[in-house]
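Before relying on records like the one below, remember that each one covers exactly one chain. Contacts with other chains, cofactors or solvent are not represented anywhere in the record.
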Amino acid sequence: MALVLVVDDEESVCEFLTEVLEDAGYRVQTAQDGPRALELISQNPPDAVLLDIRMPELDGMQVMDRIQQQDNRLPVILMTAFGTTEMAIQAMKAGAFDYIIKPFNLDELVLTVKKAVTMRQLAMEVEALREGRTPEPLSMETMIGQSPAMQAVYKNIGRVAASNVTVLIQGESGTGKELVARAIHNNSSRRDGPFIKINCAAIPENLMESELFGHEKGAFTGAGARKPGKFELAHRGTIFLDEIGELSLATQAKLLRVLQEKEFERVGGTEIIRVDVRILAATNKDLEHCVQEGTFREDLYFRLKVVTIWLPPLRERMEDVPVLARAFLQKYSREQNKIVTDFSPEAMALLMQYDWPGNVRELRNICEQAVVMTRGPVILPEDLPHSLRFPQHELKENIIKPGMTLKEIVADVERRVILKALQEHNWNRTATARALGLNRRSLYAKMKEHGLLS
């Protein structure tokens, strides 16, 4: 029977997790501080560690660092009540197997422990990404979101940042693919090097090769002097190729050579230029479909997607809309030198019922417009654009009822969404939970909360 060590300075948490994990079939040891945890590990190494981050004397990050010095193959699952972007990326960079957020989703907790124990018992090749000497990550204030989908993105950034692998970032327009690329660069060993961005859709095809690889004087009409390309400028740094699906097949072939050989020639030149560059790419296209159509090289596609990070559209993480909207409100209030403190419940309800085809970019633009248009300290429905106030696909019933609080409005929207999903899946709870990104227990709890149990 696998042994799990639970480390938390709150005795009640240790008792609760002991009960949960023993019910799941594990032996459990507990410790209420870091030194005791390290002592237990040295005496009887467990198969996995559940470790709280906020503890007196030694915090969780310090304890994890010492655990890795003792046994860098022991999986550590961090527990935190503060699921910030910085914490997520820092935890994964420092070598955590995973992290979970309080209050616990018990299904997620047990599944995470199971994965960690399996990895330990099968002796899979898992090592810490970083040790405690790693510099602190840069501020990630521009990446906002506490939804499970965004937490997964933060974890993936933390996992890939320390390496030099090529990363393909996929997602709809406006989801923040450049922010992910910058986060990877800023948390890598190349952070002090250049970050060079190229929008492949914005450069004419006849200029793309020169833009990427540079040209010699006289290489073509108008080339009056030698010009270094973006790859040269990105030496010892990162190059971000946005909208890479727009590259021509000819340019794709030249890019493939750079990926394979780390070398190229300038347009009109013969000198071999060698560079040390990490390539990050992004697209809103289905590149696999483009490969099948013959518009994108298969060998380049597989070279680019060593690791793929998928960014969810905003409509699939609606719980992030209020925090995003309020962050943009603060930003544009400062820029416009206006005192705008919040959204009215009615205005927030309009934001919550919109499907956001333009994703976070559209939300940001609407918030900026609202700050400019409002005449008071609170954003009202009339400060929002017509498309939000009179959507083409309005709900059959008016969700705004006199006297409703914001909490009641959001709960009403949640009930409608769950009810619609249940109807679409013939009240199959498993299929409905999967469609909504929930587990069955969470769906059952929400159905009970909203009076949807028959």
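The CA atoms of residues 367 and 424 lie 33 Å apart.
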